[in-house]
Amino acid sequence: MNRAVLEHETLGYGAAPVLNDVSFAFAPGERIAILGSSGAGKSTLLTAIDQKLVASGERVGLLPQDLALVPQLSVVKNVLMGRLDDHGTLYNLTNLLRTRQADRARIMDILGDVGLTSHADCAVETLSGGQKQRTALARALLRGGDIFVGDEPFSAIDETQAAMLLKLVGTRFPTVVLVLHDVALSLSFATRILGLRHGRIEINAAPDAVTPEQINALYHT
Amino acid sequence: MRFIIPERLSGRQVVLGFLIAAVAVLPFADFAISGHDPAATIARMALGFLAPDFGAIEQIGRALLLTVMFAVAGVAIGATVGGILAPFYDHAGVRGVCIFVRSIHELFWALVLMQVLGIGAPTGVLAIALPYAGIFAKVFAEYLDEADQRPVRALPARTDALSRFFYARLPLVLPQIRTYVLYRLECGLRSSAVLGFIGLPTLGYQLDSFFRVGNYGAASAILIVYVALIASIRIWMRPVLVPVWIVAAFATLAFVPSPPMGPGALWRFLTVDIVPAPLRAGGNGAEFFGWLWDILSTQALPGIVATIICAQIALVLTGMIAMLGFGFLVPRVTGRAGRFTGHMGLVILRSIPEYMLAYLFLQGFGPSMLPAVLALGLHNGAIIAHLMGRQAEQLLPRLRPDAPGGITLLAYEMIPRLFGQFVALCLYRWEIILRETAVMGLLGVATLGFFVDAAVSELRIDRVVVLLIMGALLIALVDAFSRGLRRRLGARRLQWSATEGEGISTYSAAI
To answer: Do residue B154 and residue A64 have CB atoms under 8 angstroms apart?
Structure first.
């Protein structure tokens, strides 16, 4: 059963629209990859999808492009932030002072999955770009939910690692919507491709129904 | 004002404007030397200062200990209250209260608080904590506004407000807050020392006692230790020691004797003392306005005029001393010996509060605007010179390798580059100079504080309230004017390219 998220909407910042007349729906279990040249509106579309989903009460595991980590806090505490809405104020604040054993064990499991175990207690500001992306991924994984929304989540991580982490995301979230800079990875992972060009969705099809020429055309405006 | 002042101003135009203003008020300034045989007094003081006498170690130690304790307790309360208020600074009511409490000088607060609490620890601590809370709230709120807002937006939507604040807002500004509180503690040490001049058991009191008996050697010793204390603040005030210092401060101050005040002191203060005299006597509106007009025309106005005259001249002197002083700190302009002397001189002038410097000068020159202007110019000039010197040091490696040295370097490379910053710093200091000028009236200079002091000693607290409100209005007006000028200069924020901590402390030091 398809769930409609956006229906004939105009998206953009302020007065200038980036995308016109956009509709987006998904069926649970889909893995959707958004492609397009820079400035085509990929992040705009992803942000709109996330906001609509959250507003309708959906639990979303979000990995924004700017990561939005708190540099001064440790990896564990940044990951903890994925679930602040599951607990009361007192629980959260005491956890900030000293993370409970159960929460920490759970986070350490996830850090093991993303390969950050040895950096658990480092301040995020001391990490490399790739490590920061892993931290933000761990935060989304801890949050969990029905759908993962990620904006270039592995841009600072090498191909093999990225493929592994992407597989991990696929096993933890039933539905995945993301923007990847790696076209080949997108085609191998996704069950559906959304191609953006000229302010609208030009491609909306399964990867095997999309020709290399169509993809190429997205990047040559 | 928008109609008179053009939308854009150059630094040179602003400086010229202030020079003209200072020259214009100069004929009205009272620079008469009235001390009894000033030359002999100054010679005796100088001799004493060259031969510090640490014999009175017990009194010196006690005064310094209490100076530190009052500062720590006052700054701790101020920072706590300011920190609690900062997230709500957008609220007009909160902002209004903060502006009000910080527009009244610590010494004026102490004079008013004494009427209710007597001369004791609570008066001293609150006199620092109240204005500082207002300043902390404003500065912390600015830090929070300027911090990265993305982490808080990325939190799950239904996260509660307190968790949002402590996870995704506070950690981002904590390093800045730490630096700023340390800087404020330095200011607190100055405020606390000066509170001694109106009777609290801190440095000012002890210094005054030494002077009264002509013990200049002991006065010199206490000042030396005090300057060393401020210069070494980063060594003895470590983050891990903060709780220890705070506990020690409140424990020590608990032993400072407070005079017994009748239980009704606060009530009497609020319902009788501060009520305008004609209304207290059941008079009508006309009598009230007559009373008000009398205070405004015979006290507030002359006090404000004298304050402005004194402050404008002091501001120009500040600029001159800053320009002369900062060259001493720049390598390739002066040698190692020159730089060392420059740093020492500036550290001493920066550490000793302007009020205390004025007190020292007044011993020789007698109560006129001269000691006030000298003290304000030297202290504030030293602060600006120090900030510019640090900036110049950072500029140096980026200059072309064949840049000249000496005065030529200063004139061609440094001053043109730093001139905008210099003007902005002077404008920031303008408001501070005015506040300090007003309060120097307590020493006998005819500025606003002189009339406040007279009203306090006559126990006419209703007058004090009117005078303090007028003083606060003056400061608010000058603050707005200064902000307008800075905007026209395109220098609303100081753009220091230094490392983060340095940048903040320089920026903070300017405000």
So the answer is: yes
Those residues whose C-beta lies under 8 Å from the C-beta of residue A10, and which sit 6 or more positions away, are A17, A19, A20, A21, A22
* Pairing status of strand A60-63 against strand A3-13: unpaired
Q: Which two tokens stand for residue A24?
A: 């987006």
In the predicted model, residues of chain B with pLDDT beneath 70 are 1-4, 491-511
Global pTM exceeds 0.95:
no
Cα distances (Å, whole numbers) of residue B232 to B68, B226, B229, B344, B346: 13, 10, 5, 13, 15
Q: What is the per-residue pLDDT across A158-194, written as a single tens digit (0 to 9) for each?
A: 989 999 999 999 999 999 999 998 899 999 999 999 9
CB B74 within 8 A of CB B188: yes
What are φ and ψ of residue A108, in 5° steps? Answer: -65, -35
CB B379 within 8 A of CB B429: no
| Residues B230-276: tens digit of each pLDDT | 999 999 999 899 999 999 999 999 988 887 777 788 888 888 888 89
B168 contacts on A by Cβ (under 8 Å): 70, 81
Kindly give the residue spans of alpha helices, DSSP state H, lying in B332-368.
Answer: 336-351, 354-365
Supply the Cα-derived Rg of chain A in whole angstroms.
18
User: A interface mutation test: which of B144, B155, B158, B179 has the most A CBs within 10 A?
Assistant: B155
